[in-house]
User: Fold this.
Amino acid sequence: MRPKEGQVRIPSGCAIAAVISRDGNRMSGEGMIHAMEPMHDRSNGLGGGFAGYGIYPEYKDFYALHLFFDSRDTRKACEAFLKTGFEICHSERIPTRKLPAITDEPIIWRYFVAPLQSVLRDLQLDEKEFVVRTVMRINTEMKGAYVFSSGKNMGTFKAVGFPEDVGVYYQLEEYAGYAWTAHGRYPTNTPGWWGGAHPFALLDYSVVHNGEISSYDANRRYIEMFGYQCTLQTDTEVITYIMDYLLRRQGLTLNEAAGVIAAPFWETIDRKTDLVDKEKHIYLRTLFPSLLITGPFSIVLGFEGGLMALNDRLKLRSMVVGEKDDRVYIASEEAAIRRIEPDVENVWSPAGGEPVVIRVKEGVQL
Amino acid sequence: MKQIDAKELDFRTLNERLRQETDDIEILNCCGQRFIGAGLSDRKLLLRGTPGNALGAYLNGAEITVGGNAQDAVGDTMNAGKIIIHGDVGDAAGYAMRGGTIFVKGSAGYRAGIHMKAYQDKIPQMVIGGAAGSFLGEYQAGGVIVVLGLEEPDRRIVGNFPCTGMHGGKLFLRSRCEDVRFPEQATARPATKQDLKEIHNILLDYCAFFAYDINKILDAPFTVVTPDTANPYRRMYVEN
Assistant:
């Protein structure tokens, strides 16, 4: 008889990994697949995904929209809608490889698009805001269609399955990027479905997350006031929207945004001897109290030109950073890094709430 | 020493192989396999590579040596035996440990010694050679934790909130701890010679494993922290 839940120990908890080349050297997506292998048991086959940065240099001036459709009709309807606001420069089915491990596939397409200037003028919106509104509109109003990636020169690839299989399914060895993130999912509170796999992306921001946000509803209610709609039935989605709100719309720096979502305890702020830093933290906690994310998390945020790793302030999840030559690696477990870079140097664990930001050197053409 | 190459082995297969063996074993190419040596009561294991989480969980007398770093929850709920780590350890080392000894040459992550406990002759001990992260000895109920701060002299010997919820056991920090804030429910004071006698033997072991000179280690002020029995934790989860 098949053991029931509770009769079998499932030693899981999501897995994340990431790599970036500070010199902007492009790496195949295959490395990230291998990094996920030693962490196999952290996932349970209900979600895996990757984000690659710098993977579409030939279309780098266009927003790369990745979409799931439940049917051909949905796709046709969605394309008609896209054409009302965008010039579609190129569109195609995202190449995949048939695998027994990946089933129930939706129809997966990508569109390289540019917002129509006339539409932007009419709506008096900047390009990015228009893309965000379009993504929200499709995801909330168009049944059976989900935009799961919408940045320039980057893309996310996700599915229900173990991450190692998802990477093979999407043929990630065919892509080359200067930064990659990866995720293996073990959903705890919500269904494992294609849209619920990580990374969660909006514009060029993408988030992979290991943990569980206790403050999800407070965060969601706050962020919905600014036009973001949480539709993907999982907590991580809200982190992506918070980062877009804080970084793009409020113009905060990455360190400031980290100070909002993983704010130090008041007690820790009180004891700060650097008065400028102290003042900054008081300001951020006062201005954005509803965007404090509580509960365990370790995340990697991808953005154009860099990555940021961050743990919750109590550090209830593990995260390790290491370096080798121009590359910086981040993972839930050191073993993941050692699998792809046995001679990794300067291995360390960032403290809770301490953001680690790694950028491609200035001047490098991405 | 008999060898097992762990390169292509998942954690279940590797641990099953280990349980079938009766000799001392050297395991090559560890890469993230969990629970290595779980519950083993005799023999020695020598690990190459990076073992996975919960190394030596429920260890019951065996001796495990790791040539490099170990990950999270080393010695989770171990009962007896030794774990010797020549690198750093991740978070929650010695989690709920109830006996035996852990020696770490380098530093420990968050929550080392969380929920350590002691009963009669079962007194778990952990020596961390470098620094320890925040929440060291969280909810410590028994046993002895020693942090030496030997690597990175500029780094504070422990992170924030050490001894939160401590209600038993002892913590030794090789520092005056002027820059460390302890909770009101714990008492920190300079260690006396008498105090240091309690940890002399494990320090000798530490020096033997990692080639340090005990006189140099002892030639520094130590702080000893114990729970304040007159002011125990009450209402910990409210008025926060």
Notes: DSSP finds eleven helices and 18 strands in chain A. The first strand of chain A starts at residue 15 and ends at 21. The mean pLDDT of chain A is 94.
